[in-house]
């Protein structure tokens, strides 16, 4: 910490000017405003983290994700859902941590505000006293100068009336001169008294100004250090969140490494197989020559292959009532 830069660089040659002090106060107010902005940023970031965590938690617990998978892939998905749940919880925890950091920033701001208030009250009083005494001194100076001019005029009047015969007139002039000299002496004493008082007040004000500069510079060093550390810590917290999430994701990757495609296929087959014999070909069945001991449709074995035979040629038997005559295109049923 420097401790001496403020008190050596914030003065003004004008005794009524407080520009140096006001410049420092404006800078401190800006610094306090910057801390408040970072505090609000942390609060808003906390709200974002909390919402994200809750949304992710809801997604993990309510949204199906490969729920019908089996065996090794199912175990990997279980780990996946579990770790996503943990990631969501970690973001909610981060939100609480950020709110705590925002609270610390607020407490720091209020602490500095109270410390500044004491110094500001002393300086405000010193500025008012300095300004008031300067005005009184200037009024005393004006009065003194006016009394001096009045005395000079009285002396000139006495010199001009040296040849005047009227003694009463001369006496009045001498009385006025004596009175003006007394007034000059009195106003001179009053003026000197105000000058001495103003100089004492000026020294007291300068002493308080130096003390205030030291207090304010110390506060500003503390504020910059606190703000810097808070920002550094915030970055560490975000980095830790990434590391934590990645560790959880690594657990999912590990579970995926032991996921076996062959085992999952084998598991499905063993659990859900329906049989090892495929259906046989459908055999041809002649309507006029039914096969004895023919297998039911769809149940014939592969060795009983169907062989297509030529259709029987009907003979023309006029005396047979079961057949119609084809030679003469007769369709009469006898």
Automatic annotation (TrEMBL):
Residues 91-118 form a coiled coil. PROSITE patterns: F_BAR. Residues 4-264 form the F-BAR domain. SUPFAM superfamilies: BAR/IMD domain-like (SSF103657). Residues 295-322 are annotated as: Disordered. It comes from the Eukaryota. Keywords: Coiled coil, Cytoplasm, Membrane, Phosphoprotein. It is a peripheral membrane protein. GO terms for cellular component: actin filament; cytoplasm; plasma membrane. One of its GO terms (biological process) is actin filament polymerization. The keyword Coiled coil applies. SMART domains: FCH. The keyword Repeat does not apply. Gene3D superfamilies: Arfaptin homology (AH) domain/BAR domain. It is found in: Cytoplasm; Membrane. One of its GO terms (molecular function) is actin filament binding. Binds to F-actin. May be involved in regulation of the actin cytoskeleton. This is Proline-serine-threonine phosphatase-interacting protein 2. The gene is PSTPIP2.
